[in-house]
Design a protein that fits this description.
Strand content: under 5%
Shape: globular
CATH architecture: Orthogonal Bundle
Number of strands: 0
CATH topology: Lysozyme
């Protein structure tokens, strides 16, 4: 019996050793923007999370550090509880993809920041929800347009839409976000708005990390 257990453990070790080596090597792994979207969505949550560690060098800790800044930014437009829930969705829905929480947060702020990040927001063209998905986009991801009122489903559809735009944009994230809006002058203005939001979020993140570092130094001295 002990011999059998030992054999099983040895096989498991051999199976995971290459993945562990890649995750710990410190070298950024190729982005998965050109991988079939259908195959990526068939992965389990655990497989997605493991793959995240190996994509673009973005660690889970890097992602988690973005959440308080996103929550603070959202709280300026909606209630603290809703800000917390939406920030959590930005984290959870981008796991296992080349996107990071800030990418999803920027789009939410650009799309419905002026409407209190409301799930009931509807554009003149019929786009719905916090991330403003058009009915045809919702249907292409297996949802009804009305389901875009559900924040979780809307976030999921937004991630899938942005990933599809990322493929069209050949991995250029700015171009993908521009395509998320559309084309023409309106899309150009949208991209400028996205960049402005990103600049603010990154500045707030830098201030937060600087303050944390100062607090750690004070604690160490005491």
């Amino acid at each position: 019996m002990k011999h059998k257990v030992g054999c099983v453990l040895a096989l498991i070790t051999l199976f995971w050793l290459p993945a562990l080596f890649m995750a710990c090597s410190g070298e950024p792994q190729p982005a998965a923007s050109h991988v079939s979207l259908d195959s990526s969505f068939r992965e389990t949550s655990l497989e997605k999370e493991v793959r995240t560690l190996m994509e673009k060098g973005i660690s889970l800790e890097d992602r988690k550090r973005q959440i308080p800044v996103i929550e603070l930014a959202f709280a300026r437009h909606t209630t603290p509880e809703r800000a917390r829930n939406l920030a959590a969705l930005c984290y959870l829905k981008t796991l296992g993809s080349p996107l990071c929480p800030l990418d999803l947060a920027e789009i939410a702020l650009a799309e419905t920041g002026g409407h209190r990040l409301s799930s009931k927001a509807t554009s003149s063209k019929g786009a719905m929800g916090v991330w403003q998905l058009m009915p045809r986009q919702a249907r292409s991801h297996g949802y009804t347009p009305e389901e875009m009122r559900n924040d979780e489903k809307c976030a999921d559809a937004a991630v899938r839409t942005l990933l599809s735009k990322l493929v069209v944009a050949d991995g250029n994230m700015d171009q993908a976000k521009k395509l998320y809006c559309g084309v023409g002058p309106q899309a150009e203005a949208y991209l400028r708005k996205i960049r402005s939001i990103r600049k603010t979020l990154l500045a707030e993140m830098q201030r937060s990390e600087t303050q944390i570092a100062l607090n750690d130094q004070e604690t160490a001295v005491q």
